[in-house]
Amino acid sequence: MRIKIILLLLGLIAASSVGLTLYYRWEEPQAEVRTVDYYLAHDEEREAVRKDCENRGVSKTVDTPEARNCRAAMNAGQRVIHERTVSGKNLYRSETRSW
Hints:
Elements: H1 2-25, H2 36-41, H3 43-56, H4 65-86
Helix pairs in contact: 3-4
């Protein structure tokens, strides 16, 4: 009877150690990191990533692929606004009309 209990406990320990090993070795698929230049060339994706990051509250200070994408999308958006402002094509300026 004691041998059966000992074998059962050893089996449980072995199974749990295998399970824990697999659990901690499991890695989530990493997002592909995009650059600022990529987001400058892809306006729709830049805005989608920027809104998604804001909605989910992704921290821009951590060093994860997701956070790097958020920073790149936001930097590209700021660059677009800056270039339009400098060139006189500001997003927020209404067109002048003559009545």
